[in-house]
Amino acid sequence: MSEQALKYLKENRDQLLTKLNEFLSIPSVSTDSVHKKDINEAAKFLETYLNDIGFDKVEVQDTGGHPLVYAQYNQAGPDAPTVLLYGHYDVQPVDPIDLWDSDPFKPEIRDGRLYARGSSDDKGQVFMHLAVFEAYMKTEGKIPLNVKVCIEGEEEIGSENLYQILRDRQEQFEADFAVISDTGMVAKNQPTILYGLKGFTGIEINVTGPDHDLHSGMYGGAVRNPVVALSHILASMKNEEEVVTVDGFYDGVEPLPEEERELIRNVEGEDYQETTGVKETVSEKGYTAKEHTMARPTFEINGMYGGYQGEGTKTIIPSTATAKITCRLVPGQDPERIQSLLEKHVYDVAPSGVTVEIKKEKLSAKAYKVEPNHPLIEKAAKSYTKAFGKETVYVRMGGSIPVVETIEDIYKMPIVLLGFGTPDDRLHSPNESFPLDSFDKGMETLAHYWAEVIDK
Amino acid sequence: MSEQALKYLKENRDQLLTKLNEFLSIPSVSTDSVHKKDINEAAKFLETYLNDIGFDKVEVQDTGGHPLVYAQYNQAGPDAPTVLLYGHYDVQPVDPIDLWDSDPFKPEIRDGRLYARGSSDDKGQVFMHLAVFEAYMKTEGKIPLNVKVCIEGEEEIGSENLYQILRDRQEQFEADFAVISDTGMVAKNQPTILYGLKGFTGIEINVTGPDHDLHSGMYGGAVRNPVVALSHILASMKNEEEVVTVDGFYDGVEPLPEEERELIRNVEGEDYQETTGVKETVSEKGYTAKEHTMARPTFEINGMYGGYQGEGTKTIIPSTATAKITCRLVPGQDPERIQSLLEKHVYDVAPSGVTVEIKKEKLSAKAYKVEPNHPLIEKAAKSYTKAFGKETVYVRMGGSIPVVETIEDIYKMPIVLLGFGTPDDRLHSPNESFPLDSFDKGMETLAHYWAEVIDK
Questions:
Q1: Which of A360, A382, A405 is the last residue of a domain?
Q2: Residue of chain B whose Cα is closest to the Cα of A219
Q3: Is the same domain home to B325 and B211?
Q4: Which residue of A has its CA nearest to B330?
Q5: Is pLDDT of B389 > 90?
Q6: What total number of domains does chain A contain?
Q7: How near does any CA of chain B get to the CA of A145, in Å?
Q8: Are A272 and B431 a contacting pair at CB < 8 A?
Q9: Closest residue of B to A95, CA-based?
């Protein structure tokens, strides 16, 4: 029953791309309040599109923060299943802007890729779902199953308002299963089912020494330098073998079974050196880079700063120094417990002469693992293979999607992660892009999937 | 013979302050090329003033960088000594500008202090010299001795062009002795002779990992994080006992003799906790804070940065991380040797998986020690005491004035450091200021000193 829809998608590819470009041109950066107007414009774009497709109920809902776009399609009738589709229309900041080869908000196709902030994460993938719904409506006059659409504007800043709403208004979001397209495949055109996601937590460390920057000649030797103090604290948290040296960090983490190591070895993953430009990979002692990224917890400093950053030299003892740290967690690690362990460690090792303060990152998530042999997962794998002409692989990945954990926690529904990103997409970085192959074959996968899902 | 000049300074104090404010209002920041026009304006101000005073030859000399203001006064005749007066009209950047209580380039008097960038370092002190020359010319019709004025615009960026000129045009600067007012007293209104200054060297460490910022979920566990790597490198360079742990760093440093420790103990220095806001001082194991700042070498990270610095969280593995390091040196430490030791240490400890590059700071200086019982020094001490009504103390200080070392190296002339700054001046920081007491009594000291110097 997906034939007509597939034909429609092929025939209308240019218009669809033009429409996607319109969506990507809206700089809906959620972290920065100067983009409030753009955020609202992106929500408005989705509202209009959902109405045009023919959804029964379309609402831009107030969340206390950036609005939630919510829609319902009920015309498949009470016997058809209902899917909850989650995505987000907000994007990461674009800095450093001078490293972009084209304007992040003027989409441009180069070498078979669509370059724009949000092309992969997640506006591009959200758009594909809507285009497939449009294709079904225009050709069959209906979508094969009932749909609830939930597209938020605060994913890149922690989704806190959405989590509250998911808890408060359960009826609004109840469904038979959920589908999320906010992930990637292990390689371009390699259908990939994610059966595990990492959890997430973080802290910010603020070190304060003197109450103003000091002349290093007048005060060097009398006060503790906050940047030096911070370097001591940070160096004590992960060693050169990439082992986190915070007491208790690995408590509860189950050893990686040989079968899973085998599974990971067999995934034809990306060439890290090629995609990242590093001369050699570095991973936790006893684990390969693939094992570490997919199945072992990680500790990263995302940003660190203190003192003079300009050209040349400024001979000061800085007044403050800051580090932002996040950890990716695996099953068995409770985010709040890990956060407390990090905090305790920092206070324990903090040297005298400076004041250390910890800000706990509010966003956190437990790791998530799904059953790879659930029928809805198997149907997804089948649709993938049909569209891409290649066997689907099953992997765990290092990313965190806190909303997955939240939806599971509240609704106990199966969640299918249907992602079409690729390792070269440069999410969160300059020159984010999305392959047109993923755009085409991804929509094909979705069109097949809705037909498969209702196929008894 | 200084009576008339002193009277003139008192009677014309308001006009002199107005003129100084005009000088301080010029944002002559040397580090930033947007201030090139202001740099030239500051040089022009000095040129005009020196001509108005009645100097015989006044020139704004091209240096290849910011201009040098040079002037000669020869009317004291061939039997009178010639002094070389060195100072600088350039100032440090003002960032972070929002921490200033008033505009750094709109001088403002509050609680007996003149607030402005450069009020203490060094425009205020340069101006005092010119005002005293003006006072002598207007009252006696002559200055007691011959003068060569050398006021540069590149002190805050390393004085490299001046050093070349000092070597190339020795005749231009030859004199019987040099006077520099670019230092401070150990406490407000406490006459202070500096008999030792520290040397100076530095490096910048650049660590590069991946060729772009990476998503920490996709790549955490596969690549070395440059910020983590940098924290390991930095933590290995100075320990928590404030001892520099770079091999060979202390080689050639003579132990601090008990007599000198006694001398340092007896100096009524500043209260570091009060002036810096730290809860406790921290200094090299085995040395007090005063001993460490005055007479022991120091190692400071002046700035460090890598990755995300904005609001909230950005879950990346940064592509690069940078640290700017400078050391203050004591007699026995060769700046270039220390620089090489720092470099070697960094390369030795650099972890795998990242590329580490060192930029050697071009500016460097050897430490300097003068004979405190030289007659020109003793006369300076006497003039100080006369003006301030208090015994002069003799101290070593942690600051570096590379020009001192250069002048001594080339010209072998005695150098008298006549400084009037105070520990509360916040040099290089927001809210730089200079006490009006120092302005008044400093000019009095200088007026006495020129009379003393020619007194056989």
A1: A360
A2: B293
A3: yes
A4: A217
A5: yes
A6: 2
A7: 33
A8: no
A9: B308
Q: What is the rounded end-to-end Cα distance, in angstroms, of chain A?
A: 14
Nearest to B308 among A292, A303, A307 (CB): A303
Residue A280 domain flag: no
Flag whether B282 is in a domain. Answer: no
A152 is in which domain, residue-wise? 3-197+367-454
B204 and B148 share one domain: no
Cα gap A318→A340, rounded to integer Å: 28
Mutate to test the interface with A, among B215, B241, B363, B429 (most CBs of A within 10 A): B215
Contact B302 A281 (CB under 8 A): no
What residue has token string 């015309």?
A75
DSSP string, A16-29: HHHHHHHHHTS--B
For residue A284, tell me if it sits in a domain: no
d(CA B128, CA B147): 15
- Which residue type is seen at B419? G
Residue A393 contacts residue A156 (beta carbons within 8 Å): no
Helix (H) or strand (E) holding A448: helix A436-454
What are the tens digits of pLDDT across the range B225-278?
A: 999 999 999 999 999 999 999 999 999 998 988 878 887 887 777 789 999 999
Alpha-carbon span A129 to A127, nearest angstrom: 5
Residue to substitute from A212, A216, A328, A358, interface B, most B β-carbons within 10 A? A216
**Taking Cα atoms as reference points, which of A317, A304, A213, A231 lies closest to residue B283?**
A317
Q: What residue type is assigned to position B271 of the chain?
A: D
- Residue B141 gets the label, from left (phi > 0), alpha (psi -120 to 50) or beta, of left
Q: Which chain B residue has the Cα nearest residue A316?
A: B302
Distance from CA of B155 to the nearest CA of A (A): 12
B351 and B443 belong to one structural domain? no
Tens of pLDDT, residue by residue over A48-98, are 999 999 999 999 999 999 999 999 999 999 999 999 999 999 999 998 899
Token readout for A423 is: 């390792």
What is the CATH classification number for the domain harbouring A328?
A: 3.30.70.360
Residue B229 counted as domain residue: yes
Which are the contacts of B96, defined by CB distance < 8 A and separation ≥ 6? B430
